[in-house]
Structures are given as structure tokens and as C-alpha cells.
TrEMBL record:
InterPro entries: HORMA_dom, HORMA_dom_sf. It comes from Iconisemion striatum. This is Zebrafish testis-expressed 38. Coiled coil: none annotated. Residues 26-52 form the HORMA domain. The gene is ZTE38.
């Protein structure tokens, strides 16, 4: 079904953005930066701060 395809696509897309195993300080810093970008992006979208 469409919902199942969408969930699988969404998971693969997001899991590719983040490393599964953080071994170094640089990997950890990159992870935190990406999480902050996702958080800010989500908040601005949900609050409608920028026009679409």
C-alpha cells in the first residue's frame, strides 16, 4: 500500500542522513549539527514562519 511504501521510503531517507554508530568526536558533532538543522527546520515549517 501507499502508506507502507511511504514509511519505508521515509525511514531509508532519514537513516541515510545520520550515522548509526558515532565513534569519534567529529562524527558526534556532525550528528548534533544535523539534528539541530532538522529541529529548526521542523519548527519553522510547523509554525509557518517562512512562506512556502
Amino acid at each position: 500500500s501507499f502508506e507502507r511504501y511511504f514509511v519505508v521510503f521515509w525511514f531509508v531517507k532519514w537513516s541515510g542522513l545520520f550515522l548509526g554508530d558515532l565513534k569519534t568526536q567529529q562524527e558526534s558533532l556532525t550528528f548534533v549539527k544535523r539534528m539541530m538543522a532538522v529541529a529548526v527546520s521542523s519548527i519553522t515549517y510547523l509554525r509557518g514562519i517562512f512562506p512556502e
